[in-house]
Amino acid sequence: MTVPPGPSDTTEAADHRDAADGFVPPFAPDVAPQRPGRWRRLGALARRTAPRAALAACAGIALGLAFPPYDLWPLSLVAVAALALLVRGRSAAQGAWLGLVLGLPFFLVLLKWLHVVGWDAVVGLSLAEALFMALLGAGLARVSRLPLWPLWGACLWVAQECARDRLPFGGFPWGRLAFANTGSPFTPLAALGGAPLVTFAVALTGGLLAACAAGLWGLRSGGTLRRALPAVEAFGLAAAITAAGTLIPVPTKADDTVDIAVVQGNVQRPGMDFLGRPMQILDNHARATEQLAADVRAGKARKPDVVIWPENSSDLDPFRFPQARDRIDEAVRAIGVPVLVGALVDHPSKQGYVFNEGIVWDPAKGPGASYTKQHPVPFGEYVPFREQLSKIITRFQRVPRDFYPGDHTGVLKVGPARLGDVICFEVAYDEIVHDTVRAGARALVIQTNNATYGRSGQPEQQLAMSKLRAVEHGRAVVTAATSGISAVVAPDGTIVRKIPEFTQGVVSARIPLRDETTLADRVGAAPEWTLAIVGLLTCVASPLIGRRGRPKDEKGQQ
């Protein structure tokens, strides 16, 4: 495929030509020109870049609307194409500025659910994440002059997400292109290369659409059919990549099945103070479980093999407070099957630290095996530099104890099923889910508590990640949420059952237990690192590649 090449002139050269705005007679006095002041230069720069910046901001808003709860996934292609066109032929600094201008409104739209903590948190996190988009914009500008620039741009999108998923403090993967495409033609690609391959395909398709638009724009003053061929090729390849995902089979054949029941006990109020009085949330889940047991005895419901409670379903440490342990025992004995209980458990030796755990609770033996969340959320579940920051930001005092990270995967034997427990935001991290499946999980359970962010769009965003993980690993994914959205997702990514937010209820389903692994399971992070390294190396080498690609003049000089 022939992609229309990037502009040969640099923006600096164009700006230099634009500076000559008048004729100076040869007999004019020899007076040194006065250099404009700094603010005047900045004002002139702002006026020149304002149209592009406005378009970049609109593209950022469009990208935010591609994600749940709006789910307008085609806008992710539009945003990628828009950024590629806006930075095309620009300097790295200009590309960084446009990337930042796109990234800030994007994350403001995406992360507005953080407003329950404070709008300063929304702006601060959005700005931090937008800095990665600034680096992406700079890289896209550098590779835009190279042959096959849509390919290198797609690799840079993967590199940007690779860095943002890990830095700083373990990263924050929200806003990956893959998470906007959990119900699009690109989704099945997750079974081959995970979320990074989906991101790559979306970014490559968007880049090819940009190449098509650039080629057609070049024909506005007239041209032959031959000159239009690169644009047609770019569009055809974009369509082929989009359609390719629909041809990929998603494995769903079950080796065995298990009947599960997910209990959503609900909370009294959304927001930061969702806990209410002690034992209230625990009692909600216990009563819903006892009602399920009554329905089973009355023949109104099928008896499950396993019951799943959400994260924080016990709002008191059951190993420290006898009343909490007794209440869990009552509910588990009533239903008569193992229950996976979510609870905060005090660290046995480190004062001020707690474990966020999923505990297998047997009706006869009581508490047994457990999984501890490996990736606590910085500033939400632990406070880095607590002593220093708490003096400046008093809000951190609302996080009185730090969550202590676990050191092993969450594969648990719960009744007849070997389940992989993943807690809350961990569903966004590739390595945690991948390692859990590779350790032998036959189905995945996402224990989560989204009561703080209820009716804000955050539960929908997290559920979308569960859909992608189902396809990526060929596993049923059961999401148990304290206040919703609890759901059962089939291995092909379709939602089988769900409970709306802030509703007490039980959802039951027979889910497949699978041992077969997908190609994405077997290759792990190799596609991500390969694509990211290719993108970074191309970006670094772009000046050399660009010089070698220019035609030589008659003297053999470039």
TrEMBL record:
The keyword Transmembrane helix applies. It is an enzyme of class 2 (transferase). Belongs to the CN hydrolase family. Apolipoprotein N-acyltransferase subfamily. It comes from the Bacteria. Residues 258-513 form the CN hydrolase domain. The gene is lnt. The chain crosses the membrane at residues 49-66, 96-115, 121-141, 197-219, 231-250. HAMAP family: Lnt (MF_01148). The keyword Glycoprotein does not apply. This is Apolipoprotein N-acyltransferase. It comes from Streptomyces benahoarensis. PANTHER family: APOLIPOPROTEIN N-ACYLTRANSFERASE (PTHR38686:SF1). It is a multi-pass membrane protein. One of its GO terms (biological process) is lipoprotein biosynthetic process. Catalyzes the phospholipid dependent N-acylation of the N-terminal cysteine of apolipoprotein, the last step in lipoprotein maturation. Pfam families: CN_hydrolase, LNT_N. It is found in: Cell membrane. InterPro entries: Apolipo_AcylTrfase, C-N_Hydrolase, C-N_Hydrolase_sf, LNT_N. Pathway: Protein modification; lipoprotein biosynthesis (N-acyl transfer).
